[in-house]
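Sequence in, structure out. First:
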Amino acid sequence: MTRDRVSTLPMPAYYNRSAITDVRTVHYAEIASAARTYAREHNLRPAANDTPSVGLLAIDCQLTFCHPDFELYVGGRSGTGALDDTRRLVEFIYRNLTSITAIHATMDTHTAAQIFFDILFVDENGNHPTPLVSDLSLAALQRGVWRANPAAAAMLNMSSEDLQSHVIHYAGELARTGKYNLTIWPYHAMLGGIGHALVPALEEACFFHTQARCSQTAFEMKGGNPLTENYSVLRPEVLTTSDLVSIAAKNSALIETLLGYDRLIVAGQAKSHCVAWTVADLLDEISARDPALAGKVYLLEDCTSPVVVPGVVDYSEQADAAYARFAEAGMHIVKSTDPIVAWS
């Protein structure tokens, strides 16, 4: 009997779904002990020889996106989007411990001087752009509505002329490849800050899985290159400077790992941005190899939400359009409450 024919598992005794928003210490020794006891009680086996192998890609499930008190909370249209998504994802992990071979958690990771933060741009009066509001399209940049901030160039070890040239090139590449316009985001996922951390309830679940299945959670850092956005964990938005010098490359090692699973489950934030672009890049790789491989990808639609800032921006339609395209390509749109055994 294969693993995914085993019935779903109960929540660990310590799990408290009402504490999903708590910012707290994870007591690793206690969780490890509980996980080992749980594994014995439920006859869980080490994950190394799982058949089929099942990978879970949890994208940017960090406080910065998933907690309403933090910097770039993804509330979706409901206002409780990422909170509900995180609770469902945590419970999905616990219920399916015996089916999940490995967890990959991506970590959006930023410092202050990056191409999508306001410090890098000024108008003719020295004012910085307003996050999520100011227009930094290619046309606006070419007209000089916004320009690279000369004072910030030194933070990137660049001349102001080179930074300005890169900014125009960057916006042009986004337009040429059909990406979103350059967006100025609120400061978020700051390296060294609390917002960078995983939601503690999810960190507990990942650590519990590590101990119960002897499978190390893999943490995938992304977004640290100051000259390009990195919505997708598989590939930065722009790969070169204006003079075509390489500044980044796709994550070939992770692509091979993810495509090596018999099944790949994807969840996280935000559906309209980091999730959508990661899955899109994965689909490009699949299309270039064998389109039938799309059938091994399962998207947890109730564990992801789009960026929505009421009265400012709403990316719900773009997110839904992306998921429709993924489904048309052969990927499966599923819910966290669907038993894995029922997935075709």
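Second:
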Amino acid sequence: MISDVKALIVVLVISAVIFRVAKPIALKFSSEQDYLRRRNVWFLLTITAFVSPSFWLYVLIAIPTLIWAGRRDSNPVALYLILLHVVPPISIEIPVAMVHALFDLDNYRLLSLFILIPTALKLRKNDDPARVRGLSAADVLLLGFGLLQVALFVPPDLPNHVILADSFTNILRRAFLFLIDVYLLFYVVSRSCSTRRAMVEAQAAFLLSSAIIAALSFFEFLRHWLLYVDIAARWTENPTAGFYLMRGDMVRAQVTSGHPLALGYLLAVAFGFWLYLKRHIESRWLRVGGTLLFWLGLLGAYSRGPWIGAIVAYFAYAALGSRALLRLSKAAVVATFAIGVIAISPFSDRVVSVLPFMGGTIDSGSTGYRERLAQRSWELIKQSPLFGDQLAYLKMEGLRQGEGIIDLVDTYAQVALFYGLSGLICFAGPMLIGLWRTLRRAWSNRGDADLEHLGLSLAASILGALTMLSAASFEFGIAKMYWALAALAAAYAAMRIPVQER
């Protein structure tokens, strides 16, 4: 309990500083009432998580709080994004009579049930002509992906090759969870962010929560102390809930993300958003400080894929806009300077040691493992190209690691293995359509520099996210932000600009 109190104090002090520094910036994009309410709800849920001995006590306080805040917020998507990682994604089964368990409940689903569903019901009654109307191609592809997940049962990879049987109840469960976990998020974000202000406010809210996470990430990395793991150990009976993930002799931060890779993914996406938002900040020190904060957070996650994803986003943002050659030259100069700073910093050895192309040897074996995994995955995909092989795990036993798992950390391979190329098309289609339409819209609005750069930063974030998925499993915040990005792209492409904003 003493360690929980110490961790809570650290979290509250660091987050209070971030909220205070970020307030003038946040008020450029949202009302003071909305900002203060979101901040207060964030603090309330954080304190509740640290002092609650049970997940269900947290739920008891979170549900009325989310309902109250959602009804009063002028932009529920912004509220959703700022609370997306207020606590770790700890899943607890909902026990019911006659059934082993209804489904798992976590913070993501609390937000869906009590913020997104009420918002979706309001949107059904909203005749705003500026928002996406009807079913777009992205909607159809996404629903097609859901249909494949419902129709094709992929048994979990259990010990001793135990294969669970499917059932009608399980089919209904998969359909319901796809709707509230995936399509509801896409629908609400793509329809709610129908104006420039709504979209920028939502991105700013996500950036604010990500700034807190970045600061906490760097703290965890420096102090070798994971602040939130005791919550998982207290709320679950999982003996590994309090374990630390190491790389070499370094603790990898995870904060409330559930995994260092997920933490890095979220911060890389946030960095892509920051490339646009910092244009609205007059202070050069704040712009530089914000950039440094996100990169220190990425360092704390100690994950190569997110570093690459953030770099891809940075150079894509420079390359996709007008005067691309000049912007790329400036980006290269900044990147060279950053590399020089890292080279003379105390962190240089830690960074180089995990980069195989620079001679790093830490976890170098994982590169060879992933090559073998990719080769075997491609062999199985060619055998069942259309709808995949739902028992593919049984054919990959040679790749089972010492931890007893087949570490399939490539989202594209995961989807293609179990749902075939048809599943991969339905999975990637909404994002690729959104990316193309976002770029086309941004390029057609070069007379409006702010709108152009909003689209460019969104496209850059998407390219960074797509890059990272080749080395990340599709879980936790990675999945949530993937669909949120696709939805923001759909909203941006359909956005109508009022005369007074032109």
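Remark: The first helix runs from residue 2 to 26.
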